[in-house]
């Protein structure tokens, strides 16, 4: 699977969220809707999250140093994890608190047309952002289902934007439902209930993102198809006769470390083995271009088996 960072999707989401946040806060000021306040804070948090993703992508491009010889590719994972924390605290927990306060101390909505109009506008804008994220994801998703794509993607940006936009759209529908029920029943408690539902949804999405980015931070192996390609590329049938064992590790979304013990003939000279290793590295990089760091250890299969 490609490790595309989905910059277009991030920028589209950032632009949409900034515009939506401004509209939501205006609606809150005129109507006093807690759903609007929670949604406004949610949009601000999402805007900050997209900024974090762009910053992480920029920092990850730094050249390797003596202190960090494998580069800074994992910066993208770190900032992806920070996004989950921001979404959980600023988005989810704040919405839960605001919803609780509104249920405990309900009040009627004023100028109801402001929140309704803003919510309709926000649904359209978020729909555009979500469509962009889906389009970019489909280019690299292949035959994977959406849940498999979120779990297996090595680049955190697209799954983050997808889940954020999905959560935003569902949250907007919940906010619209809360405002609508408050207007129909004349009871502001419904607005608070809608806000609590938004908070619960954001907390759930944040936990999913945290689990996925934590796995990436700990270090994930290459996909099964990439492992198969690397194994096939290592063996030439002459000097390299097999792979005794192999380990892979993502140093970043687009950087893969490969370490393998390969079987060679017992009567090969050192020069022949060295040449075979060099040729094997070329074949591996051709088969899996993101295999940037390769360590190969020659051994005699008979000895290793014993």
Question: Topology of this protein?
Answer:
Elements: H1 7-31, H2 34-59, H3 75-104, H4 113-141, H5 146-152, H6 157-185, H7 189-218, H8 224-234, E1 240-252, E2 255-264, H9 270-287, E3 291-300, H10 301-305
Parallel strand pairs: 2-3
Antiparallel strand pairs: 1-2
What can you see in these coordinates?
With 306 residues, this protein is mainly α. The protein contains ten helices and three strands; from the N terminus they run H-H-H-H-H-H-H-H-E-E-H-E-H. It has helices spanning 7-31, 34-59, 75-104, 113-141, 146-152, 157-185, 189-218, 224-234, 270-287, 301-305, and strands at 240-252, 255-264, 291-300. The protein has a three-stranded mixed beta sheet with strand order 1-2-3. Helix 2 (34-59) runs antiparallel to helix 6 (157-185) and helix 6 runs antiparallel to helix 7. The chain is elongated, with a radius of gyration of 25 Å. 44% of the residues are buried. The mean pLDDT is 85.
